Every structure is written in C-alpha cells, then in structure tokens.
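worker-03 picked up job from queue 'complexes'. Input manifest follows; two sequence lines, order preserved.
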Amino acid sequence: MTMTESPPTEAAESTEPAGAVPGGLYDVLTTSDHKAIGRIWLRLGLLLLAGVAVLGVLVALEDTSADGIDVFGGANAAWQMNGLYSFSLVLLVVPALTIGLATTVVPMQVGSSNIAFPRAAAAAAWGFMVGAAIMVISVFAGGGWGALDGVSGGEADAIELTLLGMGMVASSVLLASVCLATTVLSLRTPGMGLTKTPLFAWSILVTTSVWILTLPVLIANLIVIVVDLRGGPLLFGAPEGSTMIYDQLAWILEQPAVFVLGIPVLGIIGSIVPVVAGSRHITHAGLMAAIGVAGLLAIGGWSQPAFSDQRDELLFVAFGLLAVMPVLASLALNSLPLAKAGVPPGPPPAQLLGALGAGLLLLLGAAAGALRVIDPLELIGTNADAGVGHLVAFAAVVGLAAGMWFWAPKIGGHQLSNVLGLGVMLDFMGAGLLMGAAHLLIGFDFAGGLNDAMLWVVFFGAILATLGALGVSAAARRNEGEAGDDPWVATRLSGPLPRQFQRATSSVLSPASPQKPRCSTPPKRATATREGSPHDRHRPPASTSAAASAHRPRWDTVRVGCLCDGLLRCLGAVPVASG
Amino acid sequence: MVYFGVLALYLSRRAESRELGIEWFPEGVVELGPSGWIFWTLIMSSFTVQWAVQAIQNEDRPNAYVALGLTMLFGAAVFNQMWFIVNDTGFALSASEAQFLFFVLNGTFIAFLILAVAFLFLTALRAMFGQYSPLQNDGVPAAAMFWHTVVAMYWVTWIAVYVTK
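worker-03 finished. Artifact:
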C-alpha cells in the first residue's frame, strides 16, 4: 500500500482510525495504532519528567546542605537518589519523550499508515513502563547502584531488582528502536529514497541505530554485575562498600554515549526552521550528513571503565573534540533559511524558540565535552561530567518540547498555547544552562566560595526545570483550537519532501481529517505524484498490467460521487454534517 | 551485541591480567577437545537449518520437519556438551575473575542457544499447523538467521576462549 497509488479510503482502512483516541482501558492496553502508542510514551515521559525535576530539586538542595540540611536521611541515601536522578534523566525521560514523538510523527513523515511491528512497539511501551516502575521502586526499597557503606544481603537483592528494571528499560528502548528504524528503512512511500527522508525521520534512524549498537553493551554490563552479585561478589558491590556498580554503568551518562540524546534535536531543528521561515534548506544532504556524523560520534559502549581506562587514548579525545563539528554545521545550515526569509513579525513561535534554544544548548554541551577531554584541564571525574550531561539532556528536553508544540496537531488534533510554550521553552533552556554551566564551573574548581554559589545556581536551575515540566503538563491539557490539515501554513514538513507526499500524508493521516475521500482533494494530485517524482524507481512502467490498474484510485468515481453529494446537500436532501 | 559486549569484557580483563603477569586459567584445565566437538556440531547444524529453509521454500514439508528436528537435536547436543565442559573444568563462580567471566560468557551463550532452539521449535510448530508457503515463509529464514548468529557467536568464542585461552 502506498500513499500515491491508493485512494485515501484504502489507506485508512488498513489501520485503526487515524488519531482515534482509545476509549476504555481495554482499548488502551490492546491498541496497535502508532499515534495511540506514541501518546502512551509521551504521557509516560512527561510524568517521568515531572518526577525527575522534583527529584532534581531535592538532590540539589541536599548538595547545598553545608548548613546541615539532610533531605534524604544519610549520605548513602543521598548518593542513591543522585544516581536515580542521573539514570532517570538519561535512560527514562529523554528516551520516552523521543520514542513517543517519533512513534507518532515518523510513520506520517515517511508516508506509512502505521509503525513497523506495531504490537512490538506497544509491548515496548508497556515493558518500559514496568521496567521504569521496578527501577524507581527498588531504589526506594534499598536498592540502587551499590552502597557507600557496604552491600548487605538485603540490599544486594534490591540492587539486583534495580538492575533488572534497568535491563527491562534498555530492552524496551531497543525494541522500540527496532520498530522505528524498520519504519524508516522499509516503510517509506515509493519515490522517497533514503536521501529524501525528512530530517526528523532521518535523525530517528540515526538515534535508534546508535541505541541498537550501544544499549546491548549496557545490558551485557548488567548481566555481568547481576551474576557477580549472585555468585560473589567478586568484581562489583564488594561488602566493604563500593561505588563500582555505578562507576561501571556511568559511561551511559557521559560522553560520548550521552550525545545520542541530542541527535533528534538536530532533526527537530531541521524540520521546524524551514516551515517557520517558509524557505527551503540550502542542502538537505549536508544536514543529513551532519546528523549521521553526530550519530557516529555518539557510539559510546567502548568507553566503559571495564575496558581499562580508555579516557587517555586518542580516540576518546578525538570523539570529544569532533562532536562539536556536526552540531555547529547543522546550526549553520539551519540558520541560512532563517537569514534568507527572516522571522515573521510578532511573538516568536514557541517551537522556533525551542528549536534554536535546544541547538544552542547542544552546541554548549558539545563544547563543554570538548573541554572535558582536554587532559591538562583535569575535568574528567569531576562535576564537569554532570555539566555536559545536563546541557545535552536539557537540549534534548527543550528540542522535544519544541517538537511537541510543532507537531501537536498531529499528536492530539489541536494546537498548544504559544504563550505557555514560550514560557516552557525559556524554563527548560534556563534550567539546562544554569545547571550545565554551574556544574562545569564546579568541575574547574576555581574557588570554594564560587563552588558553593554554583550549587545554589544548580538548585535554581532545578526549580526552573520543575516549572517547565508543570508548564508542559498544563499546556497539554489546554485546547487552543482545532488544527486544520495544514496548521502552520507550510508547504512542506521538511526540506525536500515533495509537496505531494506531505499533502498525501496530511490528508490521509491527519487527526482532523475525515476518513472518507474528500471532495476538496484534487484528484490529479496522486497522478502528479507518480508522474512528478524523478526519484520514483519503484513505479511500474506506463503499460502496467490490468491487475495493477485495478488498484489505482478511481478518481472519476470519487469526483462524480462528490458532485452528486454536493448537489444533494444543496437541495437539502442530505443533512450537512457538522464540522 | 549483548553477547559480544560480555565477550569484550572478558577479553579486556584477560589482557589486563596478562599484562600484570597473572595466570588466567590454570594449565590444562580448559581443554580444546570438547569445545571442538561443539564447534563441529554447530557447523553441521548450520547445514541442517539451511536445509529446512530450502525445503520450506520448495513446499517439501517432510524434509523441512526432518531438518528442523535435526537442528534442534544438534542444539540439545551442544547444550549437553557445554554442560560437560562447565562441569569438567571444576570452576567455581567466585573463585577468580577468570573463572567468573568464563561462567558468565558460557552462561550467556547457553541462554542464546536456548532462545534459538525455542525459536526453531515455534517455527516448526507453525509449519506443522500449515503456515508458511513458498511465497510466504519469512519465519523460517528468520529462525535460520538467528541460528547462524548463534553459530557465529560460538565460533568467535571458541577462538577467543578455547584456542587462544
């Protein structure tokens, strides 16, 4: 089935009604519609974001507790909560939001009626939910990533539970990654070569590929640690007290592995900027190359401490230094359409502000990462690690929020408040900037007084993040008006996506679209797509068989039907449907 | 990737131990013979699983059943041989880093082997219930590909653990 060769009715019949909101619990549990699954991921991601933001405030308050404020009741508990905050931000919040947005948008961008392996995609969402719950609950039950005061028998069981939760989360992200990567690789509409893939879809292909290469290494680490805890402990979690489990797994929080969170941001910027500016990218291929290089530099399983200390080696330093280049190139190429067309008058669209802010945060994160790998500065192992992590993770959060505002009509069928959006973007940008820069300055260790002041800056950044998380939740509940087929008055979703593809996907899959052929759809559009695309290598020759022609849309029938329908409505024989 | 993640950990720790002059395995404990039998058994199973693919593509169901059954039998034999090796070495999980990682590596391989046999069993079951045809038989090549991957995993392990020790 393709968008260009099937009439809208056929496409709509192949899946659940587009944008259908599952009714009861049974519908939610058994849905295989990509939009419904995407919304499950997004709601879960937003819930986790709010929880992690509150936890961040408490952790930051504990860190400032020079005056004896003991938030968590002990050094060990505080250390565990710090670990929970870090792993949750990187493994739970950002992946959930990324996968949610991608599951909703990517199939539409590539012209597919659904995601590949929809049941597996749904299983991934539920598995992630269960894994996240196990991970969080087990930490409060005495688990975590080791123990400062020694691992006792009971704690070892809870730690195993934490690791099991992490394993379930990683496996679920892997499964969702396979579904998304397969969608981009195999379900593109005919005529859309891989080089013509919209930038967000391409960035998701790169991100999921990096996850497919990286997360199994994390799972292998978890297997080794769990067996060690069961049979030993020999290598990790020694009874005399150790942070070795955290140390062994912390590579997923640090560069280069953490940069994978920023790759979708590059795709989101590339999707939003040309639409808002109303101007094409100068080079779509250049942007794709930048995203691809960013992906290559985000493969990080090899940099774990178990493989001796790779951090002094040339490869590690090169990865850190080179990571700036693709981000810089992407931002430069994205700024050209804006410079050419200018920003429209009035308050800036929230999605544009978010996209550009996310890009700048990501650039700062990459630059901080480049500083971190410079050996004489001695930043590795200091708070600079957290600085880079915060900048990149919040770049991802801002970028994904911008994506949610941009694609809100496709996600929920209505637009989100621009004013609230501006507030949310500024909150998250401020949070990322304050926390990232403050941690980085603490890493430099200029002076004790400055470090104490920076800890308060981190605290205020965490409060901003909490406000941002609440703002997203508030905005998601407010309906700012139903969205039409083309809410941004855009001629394209992304750079070189031919108009026919965008219209085809929009008319068939938009939540606001009716499920029957619309009289207003120009019948020649589909024909023009087939004839107009020079890249359509799959198109059958003009003298196709009778069977193939039977599957072509019978536009004449549709046209006559619409004409009759319109006449009858004018005569009052058929009631006019509301809306 | 999970398996190769564990293997990479094993190899890096072994290299580190050797750099420090620490003996990895005691002399003569890990023998090449039994592990070689596993290797050749798995090579034979690669042929039989491909025989199943060929048979199902030709709608030759009796041959497909025989081939799938033989492959599962080879899988069971490999499991038996692996169990023998683990017992024969007399290693203990917490005795040393080398013995611990030997257990983890072989245990992970056994887990993948069981998964592959289960995949083949489900495929055979679906074939027996009339699924798959010459035009629609993706399930059988998928199971075969997973089986070949498990064979490749052991091939790498055999070289890295049993031959180079």
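worker-03 released lock.
The mean pLDDT of chain B is 88.
The radius of gyration of chain B is 18 Å.
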